[in-house]
């Protein structure tokens, strides 16, 4: 096994025993990037000099017997909408093509404190808007399992980098499935934490009431390690919470675990092979002593419509700051007046998908339509939240597919926005409810990975990890 193929746990063990150095590990990762990324195209930018400098510093601390954590000296890739001081942060958009982050996001500060080695920024759908990473303003990332297929989105670059062993782990962001769906398509593990469990400070806002940063890793144990490092209350994010104070009774036993299977998620439209693999994974847990029952999430059928009203509304507000004056690309020199600066800069700076969502959101929030659309969607959101609250009185975790199908081919859905949006049918309700969910591999269809989604109650990450570890260890 080459060093770049190691998990976090394996790398940490090797580093602690001084069987390898952080510099060696980081160099091997960059060798793999140079070899593989010409085809996969997971990265928008790299910081080889900075990464090797950080790795050398960690090796020196280790040589002096400094006490270091489990992430010290281990390479990580960062989605390009999370700010890393001194590195470009474009959100895969022309409007921010040359923007350099002036400060670190809170999650980056925490990783740096833990000794992580940041190797570069990964490709994504522009401003995290998409399910295939085809919407990047620069190029499309490819699925390492089949270069003719998409890696998922919007964190497609991060998931592909982990799957291709171009990094040991990565960070992504999830607004409606953008960590879980690419994790499923690329055969890796991805967590969308409870809303507020991880600080959003330094994450470029898409839809502020839905966005969450989370880890993408090779194993469930690695995912838990990264989550433990980045979660927690942050004074710079008023929506963040102290998970350690909120969580109660974290002792886990698979015996008599109550698993809910929502009948609405195993209905028409789900690929029969995906359906079979997900049910087989659930059966394994049942054989270990878990109890499985069918449950109802009756308002889930409205989740996609609800999401595509609330999310664009927040997008239209959050992206208003990119006006050709304060940030990034500007047509100031070409325009005759201020309005022309705004119109020209935004028209040529944003791609088709951000423009589509800005227009949808602006329309939804406009006079005469606010009550009919946005207000009604918020009421439906409350009903979806109540669905999950009721369900978690009956069961401990909920299990569903992540996506109706395995990874689809390039161009298959890009010209039909509605068809593309349906890729998120099993994931958006999780963000609307603010509950945590993890995607983990449960098999393959024609060589393509399929993900199982494990959903927990708010602050239920320990329960999710316990369940996922039990399945991983018995697969």
UniProtKB/TrEMBL annotation:
Source organism, top-level taxon: Bacteria
Example GO BP: translation
E.C. no: 6.3.5.7
Assigned keywords, A-Z: ATP-binding, Ligase, Nucleotide-binding, Protein biosynthesis, Transferase
Domain Amidase, chain residue ranges per copy: 24-463
Gene3D superfamilies linked: Amidase signature (AS) domain
PROSITE patterns for this protein: AMIDASES
Gene Ontology MF, one: ATP binding
SUPFAM superfamilies tied to this protein: Amidase signature (AS) enzymes
Pfam families in the record: Amidase (PF01425)
InterPro entries: Amidase, Amidase_CS, Amidase_dom, AS_sf, GatA
Enzymatic reactions: L-glutamyl-tRNA(Gln) + L-glutamine + ATP + H2O = L-glutaminyl-tRNA(Gln) + L-glutamate + ADP + phosphate + H(+)
Assembly and oligomerization: Heterotrimer of A, B and C subunits.
Family in the record: Belongs to the amidase family. GatA subfamily.
Role of this protein: Allows the formation of correctly charged Gln-tRNA(Gln) through the transamidation of misacylated Glu-tRNA(Gln) in organisms which lack glutaminyl-tRNA synthetase. The reaction takes place in the presence of glutamine and ATP through an activated gamma-phospho-Glu-tRNA(Gln).
Protein's recorded name: Glutamyl-tRNA(Gln) amidotransferase subunit A
Organism from which the protein derives: Candidatus Portnoybacteria bacterium CG_4_10_14_0_8_um_filter_40_50
Gene behind the chain: gatA
């Amino acid at each position: 096994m080459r060093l770049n193929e190691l998990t976090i746990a394996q790398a940490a063990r090797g580093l602690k025993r001084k069987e390898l150095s952080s510099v060696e590990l980081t160099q091997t990762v960059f060798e793999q990037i140079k070899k593989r990324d010409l085809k996969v195209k997971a990265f928008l930018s790299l910081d080889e000099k900075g990464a090797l400098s950080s790795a050398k510093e960690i090796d020196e601390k280790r040589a002096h017997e400094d006490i270091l954590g489990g992430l010290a000296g281990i390479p990580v890739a960062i989605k390009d909408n999370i700010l890393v001081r001194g590195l470009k942060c474009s959100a895969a958009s022309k409007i921010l093509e040359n923007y350099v982050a002036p400060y670190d996001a809170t999650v980056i500060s925490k990783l740096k404190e833990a000794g992580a080695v940041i190797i570069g920024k990964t490709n994504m759908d522009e401003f995290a808007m998409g399910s295939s990473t085809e919407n990047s303003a620069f190029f499309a990332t490819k699925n390492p399992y089949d270069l003719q297929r998409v890696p998922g989105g919007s964190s497609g670059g991060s998931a592909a980098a982990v799957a291709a062993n171009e990094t040991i782990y990565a960070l992504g962001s999830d607004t409606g499935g953008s960590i879980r769906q690419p994790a499923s398509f690329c055969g890796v593990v991805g967590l969308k934490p409870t809303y507020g469990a991880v600080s959003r400070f330094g994450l470029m806002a898409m839809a502020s009431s839905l966005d969450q940063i989370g880890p993408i890793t090779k194993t469930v144990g690695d995912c838990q390690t990264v989550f433990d490092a980045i979660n927690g209350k942050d004074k710079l994010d008023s929506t963040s919470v102290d998970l350690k104070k909120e969580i109660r009774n974290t002792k886990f036993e698979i015996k008599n675990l109550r698993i809910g299977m929502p009948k609405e998620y195993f209905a028409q439209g789900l690929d029969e092979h995906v359906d079979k693999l997900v049910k087989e994974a659930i059966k394994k847990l049942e054989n270990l002593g878990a109890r499985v029952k069918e449950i109802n999430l009756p308002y889930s059928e409205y989740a996609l419509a609800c999401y595509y009203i609330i999310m664009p509304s927040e997008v239209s507000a959050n992206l208003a700051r990119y006006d050709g004056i304060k940030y990034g690309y500007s047509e100031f020199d070409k325009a005759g007046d201020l309005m022309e600066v705004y119109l020209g800069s935004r028209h040529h700076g944003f791609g088709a998908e951000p423009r589509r969502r800005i227009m949808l959101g602006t329309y939804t929030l406009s006079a005469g339509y606010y009550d009919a659309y946005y207000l009604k969607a918020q009421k439906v959101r409350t009903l979806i939240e109540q669905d999950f609250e009721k369900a978690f009185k009956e069961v401990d975790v909920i299990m569903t597919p992540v996506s109706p199908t395995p990874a689809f081919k390039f161009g298959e859905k890009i010209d039909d926005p509605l068809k593309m949006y349906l890729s998120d049918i099993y994931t958006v309700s999780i963000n609307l409810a603010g509950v945590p969910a993890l995607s983990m591999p449960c098999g393959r269809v024609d060589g393509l990975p399929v993900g199982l989604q494990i959903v927990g109650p708010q602050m239920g990450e320990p329960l999710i990890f316990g369940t996922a570890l039990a399945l991983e260890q018995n697969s």
